[in-house]
Amino acid sequence: MGIDRESDTPAGIQIGPTSLGMVRIYIEGDGIDLPLDFDPEEAEEIAEELRAAAERARAAAKPKKGGGKGRK
Fold this sequence. Notes:
alpha+beta
């Protein structure tokens, strides 16, 4: 599966701090139990990447202006 393919696999995600000062992203689903720990700086980089991806996804989903045929 690639990054551009949709998935029908249901999964849940939880994000929060650990008692050791890390940020945990916990993913669970059908046959998946994946705790991922990041230091706070890495977590901030991931957050920035998520925001940037959300902006690109919004832009890709917007209808194109002036794309109709027969316009002059």
